[in-house]
Amino acid sequence: MRVNKITTKYSNYNNTFKSLRLSNGENDYSDTSFFRDSKTLEKSANLLKSTFPQGCDILDFAASNGEESISLYSYIGDDKFKIHAYDKSEKAIDLGKKGVYSIFNIWAKDRFLINDSELEEKSEHKKERQLKIRELFNKIMERVSKPEYEINDSDFLEMLEQIEGSEVQYFKLKDKFRDKFEFDIADINQIEDLAQDKEVGAVLFRNAMYIPTGNLAVNEFSFDIGKPVNKEKVIEGIVEKVYNVLKPGGLFILGNIEKDHVYLADENVPQEEKYFLNDYFVDIYKQPPLWIALEKNNRFKAIGYSKVSQPHLLFPDQMLPTIWQKTKDSKVLQKVLM
Hints:
The chain is an alpha/beta fold. 30% of the residues lie in helices and 20% in strands. It starts with 19 loop residues before the first strand and ends with a helix.
């Protein structure tokens, strides 16, 4: 695969609230919402049910407080499946274990779950889809009162209260679904140890590959760049570990933000392997190292795509591969690897 359409066209971007305020040296915020890139989650759920009718374990890394895990499970709706949600943030995991979530009726990407006027502004097709998602959400979640402990940044809540018509609603998993989720502090590099007692049918690492690779978006700049990270080596290590724990036919589910797929290239990358973007004064890999690692030795094949979602897009109309399936035929695979 190749980044085959480069453009500096800017798209409108409505910045949404980062629902978790973190501390103690963690990221300033953790950006999460229910049903983000819902088409990828829906297709993944359907594939899991058809590939593993007996059920399986699902490992979700960089899971934050579990909103995407809950979204995926709502599409699965089968008690033979269990989701193990992992994140490096102690606060995010603590909130996931406590199990109360907030939804804002303005700005937030998942506001359609509680905002009827938001639905009225959509096309009939999108309105129908979002109503179905709302129905799935209400099957596994129930509304509760505001918890005594802090979920959101207090400064943001205070600002929100001053806006006419703004509202925050709180939800929790219905009790009968609580045992379908486990939360723990962990990193994707620990995946082989974590998977030892599990039948892993899917691994989620959505909108987070840029973190271990130190990859920035082309319009970002860091004053703390430090020593360049060997992106190919980091990615290959992660892909190899994911491949080792997945059952044949299992899924590696990625996000659709630009910097998980478009990689900045430093001076150590041969000139013939990179492309210079004049408008940003940066080099990028011509062939994304993530896709190369996944396709290596036919370990994975892309079977699901999603439109890129990120401010200041390089290629806003391109579909990115977000669902990768492990090769099912182990005999063929063994011949390839020999």
